[in-house]
Amino acid sequence: MEQYIGLHFIDVIIIFVYMAGSLLLGVYCTRFVGSAEDFFIAGKALPFWAIGFSIVTSDIGATDLVAVGGAAYKHGVSAANFDWMGSMPAMVIAAFVFVPYFWRSGVFTIPEFLGRRYNTAVQFINGLIWAVVLFFMLAIMQWLSADKLMGTVLGWNPYLTLWITAGITGIYTFSGGLTAVVFTDVVQLIVMYVGGFGLLALSLWEVGGWSALQEKILAMGPQYKDHFTLLLPHDTTGPFPWTGIVFGLGLVMAVAYMSGNQVIVQRTLGARSEWDAKGGMLFGGLLKAFIPLMVALPGLCAIILVPQLGAENADRAVPEMIRLLMPAGLRGLMFAALFAAMMSHISATLNSTTTIFITDIIGQLRNWFGKAPLAEKTALGMGRVITAALIISTALLAEPIANREQIYVFMQTILSLFQGPLLAILLLGIVWRRATGYGGLAGLVLGVAFCFVLKYTPGLFPSEEPFLFVAWWSFVFALIVTVVVSLLTKPEPEEKLRGMVWSSVVLDEDAQEALKERVAP
Fold first, then answer.
1. In the chain, what are the domains?
2. CA atoms within a 13 Å half-sphere pointing along the CA-CB vector of 355
3. I want to staple 76 with a disulfide (CB 3.0 to 4.6 A). Which of 13, 112, 227, 241 is the partner?
4. Backbone angles phi, psi at 460, to 5 degrees
5. In DSSP terms, which residues pair with 232 in a beta bridge?
6. Higher-scoring residue by pLDDT: 48, 172
7. In this structure, are residues 342 and 113 in contact, taking their beta carbons and an 8 Å threshold?
8. pTM for the full predicted model
9. Which of 97, 88, 100, 96 is nearest to 286 (CA)?
10. So what's the pLDDT on residue 520?
11. CA 345 to CA 341: how far, in whole Å?
12. How far is Cα 421 from Cα 503, in angstroms, rounded to an integer?
């Protein structure tokens, strides 16, 4: 029988103040929203520090606070690579290679950039893929938070929790758009850091420190011999072998996630200058360095303190640690941190999904049917309608979509099925002027199809969950396809490549002058 904990009145007050404050701050930002540009990219007025805070808060979410801790409980410290090797180097690459081109182009979305570089078919297909994936992510985040967090720790009805948090998040995202999302994220990251590091300190204190933690876990049996190995052997049956981590994660999935994920990049698109766009991404990388400490290590401590969970209930490790260790007051702050993680990730994903629907799906369908682009006020109103529809529909479908054992591995598997091809066409589109629209389209479509072949061919890889290998080999395959098809098709005209390709920006004096004017206040 599961044990639940009650909340002291201090905890209730802390949670109430946090929730009410987030709602009021988000609704207050409505005064800054008068156009579609304000709603989707904050009127291009965001400073670097707000961008950095928001990138980290939007990325980690409640799924990381729970699922990475669960992965560490089951597989060890190798799960922390998703924040160390899987974030910081990729964010440096994103800041200096991809973000400047996205910001200079003035686009609202990554698919829109691909549409300008290649063709509208690439934009529509990539937008449709992201819309479907982000819809799944929204549902997963909502149910994970409501069930595995609040259900495990407090015994709250997950359906009631889901609708309360969806309502609050939906209201301030509906009202204030990206501006509301970003500035509530700043507050939420501070709350998350205080709560997360509080849990880490209590966890290490309870087990006797880092050295004692290692000794106790290694003494529990040979099944834990690799729990403190950051890079696991290639032939491991777990989902994190070193080859997959280095090539699949470090070189493909991480770079694709930080450079091609609309949820992450949208903050930089709203930067007030190119410098703020780059600086925001780099500052976010610095903040990210601390995330594994407060996320993965409590999961390791749970092996000692709640060994009865077993691998099948690994995702409940962090909630159980909260239940066991947090005193009144600090417990309320930790719950506020969990709400912060959940709401920030949901609001960011919600806003980005809406942007993709308006810009890359509805916008392109109108274009193909010969209709005029949406007027500013119409786009703003439609964006708010889609925001409301998304939060309601994902809340209704949250349980059947997210109710599975290893949520974190499931999410990474979804991402691996298209991020390799996406990175291939993004990279070639920027560094190789000979890449053509047909080449990009073939690389994307055939690359995604190849992902499914790799994923569902039995015995192809040693790992039971080969999503890292799928990402790497689909990236290589899509590179080859894009190059071959591009060489067989007619080159793109110079005017189309102007400002979109590395050589046309670095070597073109007129382009450099135009960029100086674009960056000037």
1. 46-403 (1.20.1730.10)
2. 31
3. 227
4. -75, -35
5. 241
6. 48
7. no
8. 0.78
9. 88
10. 47
11. 6
12. 23
Residue that the structure tokens 């999935």 belong to: 253
Residue 220 binned pLDDT confidence (cut-offs 50, 70, 90): confident
How far is it, in rounded angstroms, from Cα 226 to Cα 319? 24
Nearby residues of 52 by Cβ (< 8 Å), 6 or more positions away: 279, 280, 281, 282, 283, 284, 286, 287
Q: What are phi and psi of 46, to 5 degrees?
A: -85, 135
Rounded to whole angstroms, the Cα distance separating 337 from 245 reads 29
Contacts of 2 (CB under 8 A, 6+ apart): 152, 155
Q: How far apart are CA 413 and CA 259, in angstroms?
A: 18
Return the structure tokens found at 352. 């980005």
Reading the block at residue 343, the tokens are 């709401």
Report d(CA 355, CA 267) in Å as an integer.
12
- Give the separation between CA 71 and CA 82, rounded to whole angstroms: 11
Gap between the terminal Cα atoms of the chain = 62
Q: Which residues of 77-94 are buried (b: 16+ CB within 10 A; e: fewer)?
A: bbbbbbbbbbbbbbbbbb
Side chain identity, residue 84: W
Going by C-alpha positions, the residue among 196, 405, 220, 218 that lies closest to residue 318 is 196
